[in-house]
């Protein structure tokens, strides 16, 4: 049990209808201060709607939400003083320079002209944008835009930072830079709410992952727990013939593994917890299968998470965060 | 990287005052014009084209029956162009606003501790600056090239310009309201275009109302632009009455305030 004062976000039965469409239903969660919440889901799962409700951009049609201790509907201004939002698209003015964008945000937050100038220069330096500072944002690459976007979001030292799909559309290098920035912010004590379609991203950044599907929370928990429920990594081997299957299966079972064989495709699948399991699988195959075979390890994807979570009616869909 | 978001940073800012909000947001829109003067040039060309076309095409109207006696067509036309140009400033702004709502900058601004109307009002103020520039250009060019000699004198012409800015700024909120509710740039452009057409042409802007069929005369009477054009024309022709100017201002203020309220509501409605 956490005391209310230690919660950055607390919602009770939050729902949002747009006409006849339920974009979000009955979302109840609580996020302790200084932690990272990952909202994982496909397009249309309700991630952006939830972020928008928490950032006071749209009121919920049912339920209540508190952010940084204030009600998002009745005390919107108090909430807005303590948050920053980086939307799905880089929230920048394309027609002015990077520096001017930062100055704009700093001045609007209430910094004087000189303080704004100083803080803008500081952020440009931190986010490695000094060289491009006075170029019009239209000429920036996707990664630079995202860095500027994050720089702008950190200007007021927000208590809660909302990032709506911060790496969608970025190249791998820019993605990793973005992750490092988020990790750094989290270490400094900022509560981060991050929506993403990538399990890998949520896994790396989030303390708690909340999986959304069709506007509902279908699972909540630490990444490890969630992945354990999905089943973790699987070693897959394509066997050239069915001759050795029985021997292989027996040997694997003796190792304490749980192999499954699909005779139609000639594929053997073995869930593996770590390198030792994988080595055992390799050894068994080496001993029992004479011909060449393929062996690969696959990680669960968002699709696997969805499949396993949405096809598990027995599992309680809504566990409290912590 | 050090100390990003560190709680030990500067005292937390609590949001700028309304004056600073408007100043900073207006400067943002104007800076974009300075950085891309093509926008400004394209914006200036429209009314100049209309000035050229209408003064040449319709000049003979001055000899038509029903046209006010002793008035030259260019003196009749220029005040109308002042009003319609000032009104159309918001047209471009509305499309720009729609694009920004799509792009996310508006979402960021809305998640900041600002008065929701200031983003819209700042655009309107920027339009006012741009509109002032444009009206000045129209007046100078009309006088230098098209023989515009207002009977009301330069003072009358400048007063008509000021009135046009006020009226145009108010009526322009109709476009802003459209943008806030439609939120689709192409659609805003089409609908605003559809609306502009009757607002400009179903008015007393280019022809005397007396020569129009009865039903059209009724449309002209409910068109708020008509009152602004009438008052601006009276100022240029030197026959203005305080009452006419007051009616023009009152009608456009009523339309403007209503449209602004609708706009702010739409703006806050949803992401």
Write a short abstract of this structure.
Chain A is of the alpha/beta class and 322 residues long. Chain A is built from eleven helices and 14 strands.
General description of the model:
The complex is a heterodimer of chains A (322) and B (271). With 322 residues, chain A is α/β, with parallel strands linked by helices. Chain A folds into two domains: 225 residues, Rossmann fold; 66 residues, 2-Layer Sandwich (Alpha-Beta Plaits). Chain A is built from eleven helices and 14 strands. In chain A, a hairpin with a 2-residue loop joins strand 9 and strand 10. In chain A, helix 5 packs parallel to helix 6 and helix 9 packs antiparallel against helix 10. Chain B has one domain. In chain B, helix 1 crosses helix 2, helix 5 runs antiparallel to helix 6 and helix 9 runs antiparallel to helix 10. The longest helix of chain B has 31 residues. The two termini of chain B are 32 Å apart. The interface between A and B is large, with 53 and 40 residues.
């Amino acid at each position: 049990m956490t005391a209310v004062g230690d919660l950055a976000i607390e919602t009770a039965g939050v729902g949002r209808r747009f006409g006849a469409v339920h974009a979000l239903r009955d979302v109840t969660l609580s996020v302790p201060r200084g932690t990272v919440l990952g909202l994982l889901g496909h397009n249309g799962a309700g991630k952006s709607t939830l972020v928008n409700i928490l950032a006071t951009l749209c009121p919920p049609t049912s339920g209540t939400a508190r952010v940084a201790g204030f009600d998002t509907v009745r005390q919107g201004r108090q909430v807005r003083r303590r948050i920053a939002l980086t939307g799905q698209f880089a929230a920048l003015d394309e027609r002015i320079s990077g520096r001017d964008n930062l100055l704009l945000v700093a001045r609007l937050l209430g910094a004087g002209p000189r303080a704004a100038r100083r803080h803008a220069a500081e952020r440009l330096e931190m986010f490695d944008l000094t060289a491009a500072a006075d170029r019009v944002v239209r000429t920036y690459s996707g990664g630079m835009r995202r860095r500027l976007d994050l720089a702008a979001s950190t200007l007021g030292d927000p208590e809660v930072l909302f990032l709506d799909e911060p790496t969608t559309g970025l190249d791998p290098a820019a993605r990793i830079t973005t992750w490092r920035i988020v990790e750094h912010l989290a270490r400094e004590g900022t509560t981060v709410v991050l929506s993403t379609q990538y399990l890998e991203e949520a896994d790396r950044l989030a303390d708690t992952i909340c999986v959304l599907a069709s506007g509902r929370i279908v699972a909540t928990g630490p990444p490890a727990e969630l992945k354990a429920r999905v089943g973790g990594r699987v070693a897959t081997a394509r066997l050239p013939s069915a001759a050795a299957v029985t021997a292989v299966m027996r040997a694997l079972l003796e190792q304490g593994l749980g192999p499954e064989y699909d005779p139609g495709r000639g594929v053997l699948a073995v869930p593996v917890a770590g390198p030792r399991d994988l080595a055992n699988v390799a050894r068994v195959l080496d001993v029992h299968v004479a011909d060449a075979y393929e062996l690969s390890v696959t990680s669960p994807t968002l699709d696997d998470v969805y499949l396993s979570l949405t096809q598990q009616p027995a599992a309680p869909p809504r566990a409290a965060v912590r | 990287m050090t100390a990003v978001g560190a709680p030990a940073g500067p005292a937390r800012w609590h949001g700028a005052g309304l004056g600073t909000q408007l100043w900073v947001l207006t400067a943002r829109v104007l800076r974009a014009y300075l950085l891309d003067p093509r926008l400004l040039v394209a914006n200036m060309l429209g009314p100049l084209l209309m000035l050229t076309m209408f003064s040449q095409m319709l000049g003979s109207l001055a000899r038509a029956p029903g046209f006010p006696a002793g008035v030259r067509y260019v003196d009749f036309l220029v005040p109308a162009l002042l009003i319609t140009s000032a009104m159309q400033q918001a047209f471009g702004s509305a499309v720009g606003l729609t694009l920004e709502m799509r792009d996310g900058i508006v979402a960021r601004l809305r998640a900041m501790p600002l008065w929701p109307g200031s983003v819209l009002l700042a655009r309107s103020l920027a339009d006012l600056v741009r509109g002032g520039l444009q009206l000045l250009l129209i007046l100078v060019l009309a006088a230098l090239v098209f023989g515009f000699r207002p009977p009301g004198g330069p003072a009358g012409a400048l007063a008509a310009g000021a009135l046009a800015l006020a009226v145009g700024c108010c009526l322009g909120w109709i476009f802003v309201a459209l943008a806030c509710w439609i939120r689709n740039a192409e659609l805003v452009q089409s609908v605003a275009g559809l609306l502009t057409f009757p607002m400009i042409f179903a008015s007393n802007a280019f022809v005397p109302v007396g020569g129009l069929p009865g039903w059209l005369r009724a449309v002209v009477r409910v068109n708020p632009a008509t009152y602004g054009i009438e008052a601006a024309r009276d100022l240029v022709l030197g026959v203005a009455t305080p009452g006419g100017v007051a009616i023009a201002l009152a009608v456009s203020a009523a339309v403007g305030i209503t449209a602004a309220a609708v706009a702010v509501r739409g703006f806050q409605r949803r992401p």
